[in-house]
Amino acid sequence: MGKVLLAYSSGNEVDSLIETAGLSQRTPNTITDPDRLKQHLLAVRNQEYAIDDEENELGIRCVAAPVFGDKGDAVSAISVSGPAFRVTKRLIQETLRKEVMRAASDISQLLGYTGAK
């Protein structure tokens, strides 16, 4: 969920967070290079979902999507996570990402989002 929210933050906010909090490596999969993270966040924004592929905790995989408010800003995110042996990359691509994105869209509409960003 953090990557989704970062993807919809301003470049200044991302830079400030990186400078303040740093990019500590939590697992071998954690993105610790600022330029690589920024490229990844651009991809997340373009596809409108993010995957945590055991980046925060080994053995845990997550897929998240943004929830938009009535003004078109990402105000929150929702996610599904679980053990990597159950939340497989294939399951994410075939089912979970679509379901999470649909749920996020439904919530966004309830908040007044009309699709205009």
Content-based structural category: alpha+beta
Termini Cα gap: 20 Å
Specify the helix fraction band: 40-55%
The tally of beta strands, per DSSP, is: 3
The main sheet comes to: 3 strands, antiparallel
* Mean pLDDT figure: 95
Strand line-up in the sheet with most strands: 1-2-3
What's the shape? flat
Tell me the strand percentage band.
15-25%
Low-confidence stretches: none
**What is the number of helices?**
4
- Rg from alpha-carbon coordinates: 14 Å
Order of helices and strands: HHHEEEH
Oligomer: single chain
Could you explain the architecture of this structure?
The chain is α+β, with helices and mostly antiparallel strands. Helix content is 45%, strand content 20%. The protein is built from four helices and three strands. The chain has helices at residues 2-7, 11-21, 34-47, 89-110, and strands spanning 50-53, 60-68, 74-83. It has a three-stranded antiparallel beta sheet with strand order 1-2-3. It starts with a helix and ends in a 7-residue tail after the last helix.
Descriptive terms for the model:
4 helices; 3 strands; 3-stranded antiparallel beta sheet; alpha+beta
Give a nutshell description of this structure.
With 117 residues, the protein is of the alpha+beta class.
